[in-house]
Amino acid sequence: MRMGYMLGRDKELAALSVLIDKVSENGTATAVLGEAGIGKTSLLRAVADYGEAAGLLVLRTEGVEAEAQLPFACLHQLLWPVLDGAARLSEPQRQALAAAFGDGAAGRPEPFMIALATLNLLAEAAARRPVLIVADDVQWLDSPTHDVLTFIARRITSDPIVLVGTVRKGYQLAFTSAGLAAVDLGGLDDEAARAVLATQGEGLSYAATERILREAAGNPLALVELPLAVRATAEAGLDLAPHVLPLTARLERAFAARVADLPQPARDAVLAAAVNDSDDLPEILAGASALAGQDVDIDALEAAASAGLISFDRLRVRFRHPLVRSGILQAETVSRSHAAHAALSQVVEASYRRTWHRAQSVSGQDDTIADDLEDLHNVALRRGSATEAIWALERSAQLTTDSARRGRRLLLAAEHAFGLGRADLVDQLLGKAARTSLSRLDRARMEWLREIFNDGVPGDAGRVLELCGIAVESAAAGELDLALNLLLGAALRCWWADTGPAARARVADVVDSLAGVADDPRYVAALAVAEPMLRGEQVLRILDDVVIENVSDPAALWLLGMAAHAVGDPVHAVDFLGRAEIRLRQQGRLGLLSQVLVMQTIDHLELGDWDRALASIEEGRRLAQETGQPIWDTGSLSVQCLVLGLRGRAEETLTMAAKAERAAGGRRLGDVLACVQVARGYALINLGAYDQAYEELRRAFDPDDPAFHATDRFHGIMFLAEAALHAGRTDEARTVIARLAADAALTPSPTLHRHLSYAQVVLAPDDEAEELFDAALRADLVRWPWLRARIELAYGSWLRRQRRAAQARQPLRSALTTFDIIGAARWAEQTRTELRAAGERTGAQAPAQQREDAHAALSALSAQELQIARMVAEGMSNREIGERLYLSPRTIGSHLYRIFPKLDVTSRTQLAAIPGILMAQQPVQSPD
């Protein structure tokens, strides 16, 4: 079958037809890019016609400037043919869609739950019949619909779905930066351009023809419209629009000139259509009648259709091209446009839309409309659109006469922008709020919002003390919630970069001074982050008393996990953060989920679950990018270095470490730089460069070095001792370890004490070692298999050197089992060498070899594939896994299709029998 013919577009038509022809093999998303009038819409129509002829279900939506502030208007347009399938979605997804489409009883959904519901609704439809989605003018889709479309575009490769969206050049969109294939639609070549003009240019002089060809530059719409403009201006004795105008403006003028010739009822009708957020014909005629002060009937539309501006049927009015709408608005005065909005506000039924039109109908200030708009922002939030809530609040502020109320509304908008991770928008809104007469408390809120995206400034103790002072004032005014937010912001400054003991102590003291907040998770988080060493014991007592099953709020769980992570307690951290992860996935809060995933990565490394650590950091970075959180995307680099360093990917680790160091921007961010140095130590140990590894690790323990960090250095203690032992620098290392032992007297940090138990024993003289080994192995290491295996390897090696080979084999065998399962290849190989030296027979190595083979197979999987394989081994269905990972069930099936051959299995039940696939994952109870 051949796609419909279009002059000069054979190449583009062929490329897009292939996508449809191969839809059963794989889904794909493509952006068609081009200037206004270049033929994107015509190409999209040809694609839709071809898809329908090929038997695909074609779903359509189009962006309209007038609808850009109405949440999910375009998504509803897209999905209404398949909405009956929503009954088969899970309850949270069904409610999310209902809320998006205006059902206030459905509660407030997270945007990504709506996106997942849309993905699954489309996947269900595609399972019965392949789907083609055509989205015109993506740059004008309402923001929530644009986000959903971008989400889908990244996830349909395994479903029989093709998505083609047109985008006008000059717009920076998430859709076009999502890694999609693109068709760049340029101008027609000279032959095709002349052929188009020949159908429109009858009676034009040679000079006029050549001028149009030159001005149009291959733009099809210009080739159609400019001849009409030339004739009209010639008849009026005028010249064509000046050359200095861009082509789009010239076309708008051409359309505007045609509007001016319409009879008044027709002008009123097309203006009502141009400012309306709906193409509903009865509504447009009612609005035009209200505007005109008399009945306007369908005859008025006939005049506009005859002028080539619109088309209509019994239900809908459509503009021939988006530039027609622009031309109409250009032809009318601002006061006429305001009047048209006011007229529509009298006839639309939905209060949401009525308020929106009223807000567009005034140029001055109006407190009544401003108040209604503030109420409107809550409607937008209930529908899952923080973007539209921000717009409503910002417009409400513009209409507000009282300066203080105007500022408060801007601050509220800034809080929602923070929730979206939009640092740029927060700064913009705060700049406007700063020019209003804010109350002292609102100024305190502004200070908190300014801190949210601030990584800290080296030695900026003054700013920390200033925030503490504002927090004290806020608490005195009864604003404990604001005070805690400010103190957590101050504590994070202390965490990222050393602000000195006085500033850290001040934060902790002010936190302690607040009455009635001890049960608030921000309380323990601020203490832990500000003073992880001196307040570690207090923090751990609080965390021990928390009954995790009683905590349901994922944000609270995140803060408790942050506190545990800060003081070096990975067991508590993974328990709190793991439960937060489950909740956040259920609720579709992917922005916070990305932070939880990144934060728990190091703790999984400490506890020996390296595969999960790799999956967490890769998914966390991906979600940070998808949800527009550049800070977390950048900050995750140093954490990813740690994962890769332990996994033996040394060269990649060193390259990424340099990138992470540059990303820190020379700001002496000790947290990032400490992780970078520890990761370099991991990589160099894997390369056998022990002396260099010691030098890199040593920096993390030097208080005068920018890479020093109070608790992140703990992750390098074992490795500092290992590098020193092999490099012959044990005396130097003992000095460092002695200082760390003094620190251990200040804090019960589990990571510090566990690492010290290893470092002290491997650096001890032989006559002291056995007692230290015995004490280290008697400790509770059930949740610490990686550390236990390290101690067992060191003990077995020590026993062999003491000529106690028979005794050495048991701890070495135990260590090898753990190393194989964890994927610690270098240490596993070192253990095998020790076992052979201890006289281990080949036959006894068979189980270890099986585990090694199993891990080699698992290592062939990507982090996401391993994540899916583990979930299948746990008994989860494709649908359950898809809901957890925000993928369609068919995509999960496609992953399994690739996973099974890699693992040499043929069924789901065989996955659970693979050695190591379920080990090291500590169970986290699902929330009730």
- What is the count of structural domains? 6
CATH class of the largest domain: Alpha Beta
Mean pLDDT equals 87
- CATH superfamily membership of the largest domain: P-loop containing nucleotide triphosphate hydrolases
Strand order of the largest sheet: 2-3-4-1-5
The residue ranges in which pLDDT falls below 50 over 5 or more consecutive positions are 238-245, 842-846, 920-926
CATH architecture of the largest domain: 3-Layer(aba) Sandwich
Q: What structural class results from the helix and strand content?
A: mainly alpha
CATH topology of the largest domain: Rossmann fold
Determine the N-to-C terminus distance. 54 Å
Q: Which band does the percent of strand residues land in?
A: under 5%
Instruction: Please bin the fraction of helical residues.
Output: 55-70%
How many individual helices?
A: 46
Mind telling me the C-alpha Rg?
Answer: 33 Å
Structure summary, number of beta strands? 7
Which of globular, elongated, flat, extended, rod-shaped describes the shape? globular
Q: Note the main sheet.
A: 5 strands, parallel
SSE topology:
Layout: H1 10-21, E1 28-34, H2 40-53, E2 57-62, H3 73-79, H4 91-100, H5 111-128, E3 131-136, H6 143-153, E4 161-168, E5 181-184, H7 190-198, H8 206-216, H9 220-235, H10 247-260, H11 264-275, H12 281-292, H13 298-306, E6 310-312, E7 317-319, H14 322-331, H15 334-347, H16 351-359, H17 367-382, H18 386-399, H19 403-419, H20 423-433, H21 440-452, H22 461-476, H23 480-496, H24 501-513, H25 521-530, H26 536-545, H27 554-566, H28 570-587, H29 590-606, H30 610-626, H31 630-646, H32 650-663, H33 670-686, H34 690-699, H35 717-727, H36 730-744, H37 750-762, H38 766-778, H39 785-801, H40 805-822, H41 825-837, H42 846-859, H43 863-873, H44 878-885, H45 889-903, H46 908-911
Helix pairs in contact: 1-2, 4-5, 5-6, 8-9, 9-10, 10-14, 11-12, 11-13, 11-14, 11-15, 12-15, 15-16, 16-17, 17-18, 18-19, 19-20, 19-21, 21-22, 21-23, 22-23, 22-24, 23-24, 23-25, 24-25, 25-26, 25-27, 27-28, 27-29, 28-29, 29-30, 29-31, 30-31, 30-43, 31-32, 31-33, 32-33, 33-34, 33-35, 34-35, 35-36, ...
